[in-house]
Design a protein that fits this description.
Structural class: mainly alpha
CATH superfamily of the domain at 8-108: lambda repressor-like DNA-binding domains
Oligomer: single chain
Radius of gyration: 18 Å
CATH class of the domain at 8-108: Mainly Alpha
CATH architecture of the domain at 8-108: Orthogonal Bundle
Number of strands: 4
Strand content: 5-15%
Helix content: 40-55%
Number of helices: 7
Length: 145
């Protein structure tokens, strides 16, 4: 869900309220002080990248959604997956995933997820003038959709 015409602080506050969390509870879940959460929500202070990632994790949303990046403007650097890091479920940018994290994500993936991921990768690679093949087998777009 993308929240339009709102500031980052307003989006954080709205997501927190939707989750039924107090500022103190969000503080505990994100590891960020309650006073900083208050400052972010009032737009008196801007969270840095790691704080945004921690808040997104605590609110169980993608960083791209929290940052209000429309899906059409996202590239692979704006695609986030949740991965286990340091014992916590953390949003990780697609391009920053380790091979093991990719393997773990794909081990739990549904066939529809893998098809969608291949379509996204195929489109991005075609824009770059490259082609997509999996294990030496070319992957073509499904023309029936």
């Amino acid at each position: 869900m993308i929240l339009t015409d709102s500031t980052l602080g307003e989006r954080i506050k709205k997501r927190r309220i939707v989750q039924g969390l107090t500022q103190r509870e969000l503080s505990k879940k994100s590891g960020i002080s309650a006073s900083d959460i208050r400052m972010f929500e009032r737009d008196w202070m801007t969270p840095d990248k790691s704080e945004i990632e921690n808040i997104a994790t605590a609110l169980d949303v993608c960083v791209s959604d929290l940052m209000n990046i429309p899906p059409r403007q996202r590239n692979l650097d704006g695609v986030y997956f949740f991965a286990q890091r340091n014992g916590a479920r953390t949003p990780v940018c697609f391009s920053d995933l380790t091979e093991l994290e990719m393997d773990n994500i794909l081990a739990e993936a549904t066939p529809q997820f893998v098809r969608n991921l291949c379509k996204i990768l195929g489109k991005v690679l075609r824009k770059m003038g490259e082609s997509l093949d999996v294990e030496g087998i070319p992957v073509s777009e499904d023309k029936t959709e």
